[in-house]
């Protein structure tokens, strides 16, 4: 019997219907298709529209897509892990976890047989559409993968977990966390949207 590894056996996805084009962005902020394409290379981005729709909405859609493709019932899933930087709300957390590594360990130990890992972000909720440095970069979407045991030598073989914080001063959302909780000052200074600083 070979070593049990976690193998990706299915993939699901969801992209919102609304597509924000460079031409539309150019009517919102001082930019153009040429400016965006020469600096970023992005033509369109999907944006989630609708009252009270957040990251979890897209995550659920991605999981449903995965389950339909695999012809599975939700009751068959032992564990769901969600990774995001745009939770529906900061408390309770939607789940900032090192997702695939965590999921594969549940498979390798035999604790779980079927694990879904979801990655979803509604970046449009934290983008300032008057800032041409950041608004062309981001869109919204979600994906889900199913991990199951494999003894044939396939799947996740090893993990290299590394974090490099040297880029933190260049692209971040300054307020909303424990350093700068929401206040009149943070709102006035627009610190609740993505900020990009270049030297």
Can you give a write-up of this model?
The chain is α+β, with helices and mostly antiparallel strands and 199 residues long. Helix content is 23%, strand content 23%. The protein contains five helices and eight strands. It has helices at residues 22-28, 33-39, 55-70, 99-108, 184-188, and strands spanning 5-14, 18-21, 44-47, 79-83, 115-122, 140-150, 171-172, 195-196. The strands form three sheets. Strands 1-6-5-4 form a four-stranded mixed sheet. Strands 2-3 form a two-stranded antiparallel sheet. The longest helix is centred in the first third of the chain and has 16 residues, at 55-70. It is elongated, with a radius of gyration of 19 Å. 24% of the residues are buried. The model has no long low-confidence stretch (mean pLDDT 88).
Distance between the terminal alpha carbons, to the nearest Å?
Answer: 56 Å
Q: How much helicity do the residues have? A: 10-25%
If you average the pLDDT, what whole number results?
A: 88
Radius of gyration, whole Å: 19 Å
Order of SSEs, N→C?
EEHHEHEHEEEHE
Total DSSP helices:
5
- Biggest pleated sheet: 4 strands, mixed
């Amino acid at each position: 019997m070979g070593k049990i590894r976690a193998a990706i056996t299915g993939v699901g996805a969801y992209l919102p219907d609304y597509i924000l084009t460079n031409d539309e962005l150019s009517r919102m902020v001082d930019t153009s298709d040429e400016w965006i394409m020469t600096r970023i290379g992005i033509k369109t981005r999907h944006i989630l529209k609708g009252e009270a729709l957040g990251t979890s909405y897209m995550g659920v859609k991605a999981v449903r897509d995965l389950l339909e493709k695999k012809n599975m019932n939700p009751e068959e899933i032992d564990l769901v892990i969600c990774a995001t930087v745009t939770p529906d709300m900061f408390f309770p957390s939607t789940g900032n976890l090192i997702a695939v590594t965590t999921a594969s360990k549940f498979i390798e130990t035999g604790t779980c047989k079927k694990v879904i890992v979801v990655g979803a972000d509604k970046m449009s909720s934290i983008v300032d559409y008057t800032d041409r440095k950041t608004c062309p970069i981001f869109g919204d979407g979600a994906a889900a993968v199913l991990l199951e045991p494999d003894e044939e030598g396939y799947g996740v073989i090893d993990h290299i977990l590394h974090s490099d914080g040297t880029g933190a001063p260049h692209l971040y959302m300054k307020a909303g966390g424990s350093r700068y909780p929401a206040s009149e000052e943070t709102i006035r200074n627009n610190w609740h949207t993505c900020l990009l600083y270049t030297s």
